[in-house]
User: Fold this.
Amino acid sequence: MFFIGGAAAVMMRLHLIEPAGALVQPETYNKLFTMHGVVMVFFFLIPSIPATLGNFLVPMMIGARDLAFPRLNLLSWYVYITGAAFTLYALISGGVDTGWTFYTPLSSHYLNTHVITTALGVFITGFSSILTGLNFIVTIHKMRAPGMTWKRMPLFLWSIYAASVIFVLATPVLAIALFLVGLERIFHVGIFDPAIGGDPVLFQHLFWFYSHPAVYIMILPGMGVVSELVTCFSKKKPFGYIFIAYSSLAIAVFSFLVWGHHLFVSSQSVYAGFISSALSFALAIPSAIKVFNWTATLYKGSISYQAPMLYALGFIGLFTMGGLTGLFLASLATGVHLHDTYFVIAHFHYIMVGGAVMAYLGGIHFWWPKITGRLYHDGWARFAALVIFVGFNLTFFPQYMLGYLGMPRRYAVYPAEFQVLDVMSSAGASHTRRRLLDSIRLSSLVHPLWTRSRIESLERERPGMGDAIAASHR
Amino acid sequence: MSESAASSPLAAPSARHLSPALHHQFEDIEQQRDAGNFGMWVFLATEMLFFGGVFTGYIMYRSLYYPGFAAGSHGLEVNLGAAMTFVLLASSFTMAMAVHAARAGRRGMLLGLLFATILLGIAFLGMKFTEYSHKWHEQMVPGLNFHPSLTELRGAPEHAVELFLCFYFFMTGLHALHMIIGIGLLSVMAILAWRGRISCEHYNRVEVSGLYWHFVDIIWIYLFPLLYLIGGRYK
Amino acid sequence: MNEENPSVETYIVVFVALLILAALTTGIAYINLGTLNTVVALAIAAVKMSLVGLFFMHLWYSRGLTRIVVLAGFFWLALMVLFTLADVFSRSWIKPPGP
Assistant:
């Protein structure tokens, strides 16, 4: 799914090399960005770390034999595949052009594309998320080995736990919102229908009640991975363990309070705008606590720059940039100016790609030997990490400037004066994508034939690589 | 750290109390039951938010279009609604008793009570169906068949009544869907009990299904006053 | 977990109480109390829910963790309702400038 989403993104960037659009029709462009959003958000970012690393590491890190409900876990995998099948069907049979947000009444009354199929796909996949989150919560609460108290749990588990809370409490609201959109399409009447006095903004409320916390579903596990990586590769105890742990929970709770900042220009009342703006600033505090603590962990550590650590350092830098530009968007005045511009695009890609994907790649590299018993090629992996970092910045940094200058998102054409920056961004995108492929293929998949003794020495080199006992002794 | 090292997870399995009903990932049956119950409660919290989305919309529109909601509510048959409430409360009672019987290991009683619960649930759905068909004949189904007469509107704007009926059908429909799932779940439990797969040690499945059933009951406890009793029934 | 469980008598008492409350809420709808009608109906619903939750679902006998899950559910529900309504009802406080 990641590759489908990525392909859509590259098509878009190639299209935007020319101001008038180089490659595809505007309708196709709309379908491309929708597919990119839907696939990346619901089918890659949200399940990426919990489903791969989480399912593998959670039982191991708390010293349990398995998750509490292994069959439920298997079910959630089948559910995910079913949801993905629906979405792929929509993609193949004509595509959707609502944007990944499915805003009404555009989605419910005006478009003739496969909204129902896609919404159904997302709806079904939502259950997969819920079941996974439920499984983690129960496992962490009920199945910790004797002596594995909350305060001794690896930080990864704290963040997975916080993300699971969001999974469980937010996803159903998205499900019901999409359900209602689907019904409205089928029956041509519904509660978001302005013709009978319905309020389309209600859909946005329900949607963002899920989707803002969902951002933290994506980034929290990434933060957990980075906490582990930074600790391991600086050969120190995590600085301020308790603060990192509790800030995960604080993020989970606060994330539900700020969705109003997505509605600044959606005829939301200005008073609600004030409140969500102020609360959004509050949400920056726990995130900043984490960054400070990571930095303090690095301080005077004996740092080894292996590939996972490079990803982790990339994460910290990019996440900080993404987070700080988030504050621009959270403040009401600049937020209105920058709303729906490329500044927003750049902001959330710094968080999502610079944050979640970097952490995901770092985590995969870090635990790859633990999972497969084989080692990747460290030289290539380091090279790939650096190239991704450069390519990523080349892609998205110009978008900050574009957005600040006023280029709106989701347009297939743009004024000629933006061309230089757009070409830079497109060049970066194709570059990143090629390197991303390279990195995954070369570093992880083609070079598994390293000897077993190498792995054993690795165990000494990286204490606590997912082992419950070692981790609790840290 | 020393005492935790002594009882490390690797040492624990040797002391396990082994039971055929115990799944491999749990230490003992108590932990398994605990995890099962806790899992269902977490799921119910999810369900709460799921219904919560519609309830949020309901509260919002009810305060915006109160006359239309009151008029729509007066078009519903309050006696039928009350009867459904009684049936559902009775089913909740038989369900609670079924869990009690399962814990006591009384298979015959458990089967009878599960059967009674299923029958009451089907009776509820039958009444629901009757009500839906009445609505259809009154031409009060939004989207498919909505041509209200002036008496049915009771002086309220037509669009607000339609909005109320949207909520009526969404909320009761969603509830009915959960009832159907619940009946399916209880049927599975009945089959398991019939085959003797529910013991007094291993009755967690019945307990968890019971939690779900009670939750669906609670949703109806709110739907009844929210849909049928808006603005009272006094003349 | 719940060492003590409710007895059959408890179940019967709770069931009878629920039936009485259901009859009560229907009956009260026919008496004119003004806005209090809604308040009373919802209060009765809350009592009924508590009875089902505490006794049929054994919350009365269960540990803190389960109760926290229930409270968390309510808390998040309240957040959703509160923030949505905060927007909807404050929209009309300020009129947009213009003719």
About this structure: Chain A has one domain: 2-473. Chain A touches chain B through 53 residues (CB under 8 Å). Chain A has 16 helices and no strands. Confidence is low (pLDDT under 50) at residues 441-474 of chain A.
